[in-house]
Amino acid sequence: MATLYYESDADPSLIAGRKVAILGYGSQGHAHALNLLESGVDVRVALREGSSSVRKAEEAGLRVTSLAEAAAEADVIMILLPDTEQKAAYDEHIAPHLSEGDCLMFAHGFNIRFKQIVPPSGVDVTMVAPKGPGHLVRRTYTEGGGVPSLIAVHQDASGKARQLALSYAHAIGATRAGVLDTTFDEETETDLFGEQVVLCGGLTALVTAGFETLVDAGYQPESAYFECLHELKLIVDLMYEQGIAGMRYSISDTAEYGDVTRGPRVINQAVRDEMAKILAEIRDGSFAAEWIAENKAGRATFEALRQEGKAHQIEEIGQELRAMMPFIAAGKTRVQDASGG
Predict the structure, then answer these.
(1) Rounded to whole angstroms, how far apart are CA atoms 201 and 193?
(2) Tens place of pLDDT for every residue, the chain, 341 residues?
(3) Which residues are catalytic?
(4) φ and ψ at 84, to 5 degrees?
(5) CB-based contacts of 286: which residues, under 8 Å, 6+ apart?
(6) What is the pTM of this model?
């Protein structure tokens, strides 16, 4: 069974006795920094020179420093920069200032798992990864709650790395909801797999393919959009609240019969085999190597695919339909991943 920790399992004094630097002020960065500040932790935000986030952080009552200054004075450094920017920031600004007894923290294990960052042996290396976007980490904290989080230890030089990570999780409100013990390997591999096969890659490809199938068969693109994209939120909300069985209970018998008989024809053995290949590429480092090379080469393939997606008919139709539904825009919140800078 997985190990779950709550408020009674954490010692708030551990993080309260440290100097913490938050690198980045994006989705997760702003939430961590403000929650830590309001928990009485000595925290500073480290930003690049000229960052547009400097003013926002200072207006929120946070002290802002350069990356190097923060690394030099802090003994707990939480890196919340985008995955592709972490190695350069670590090599130039963090590594020269690390001392024995310091703790390096992450909210995603990519750079440790794929050895882009290799910390010295005398430094604790841990992870505290909220399983929700930063705006929820912040909002739930102010409401007296929290977002469930993962913690992991890659390197325990002090013998107290897990306790310190748990104390940090407590200070951002995570132990109010529950903290799950994991490993850097498990978090990284399952996170990438979920993004690629279900949450992002698999879902967007499925929605787009369904839309195209209906339009190619002569149906109105507006009808195709509503059936294959718009209504998806209603189903996902039911699954989120009640699980798959609860969702099936809430839909019609006709819909449920179509679900249980036709779903396996779409997600068939060939699809499952492809899922296994994708997982293998994640685990053996092939995906990481491909993504790192793509960034070094200037992201030409990535940008071309991004623009191709934006130009698809489903986006044009969706924009027109959403403009007729102002209630959607009124509740819109941009969601970034844990590494958003």
Answers:
(1) 10
(2) 778 999 999 999 999 999 999 999 999 999 999 999 999 999 999 998 889 999 999 999 999 999 999 999 999 999 999 999 999 999 999 999 999 999 999 999 999 999 999 999 999 999 999 999 999 999 999 999 999 999 999 999 999 999 999 999 999 999 999 999 999 999 999 999 999 999 999 999 999 999 999 999 999 999 999 999 999 999 999 999 999 999 999 999 999 999 999 999 999 999 999 999 999 999 999 999 999 999 999 999 999 999 999 999 999 999 999 999 887 766 554 444 444 43
(3) 108
(4) -75, -10
(5) 280
(6) 0.90
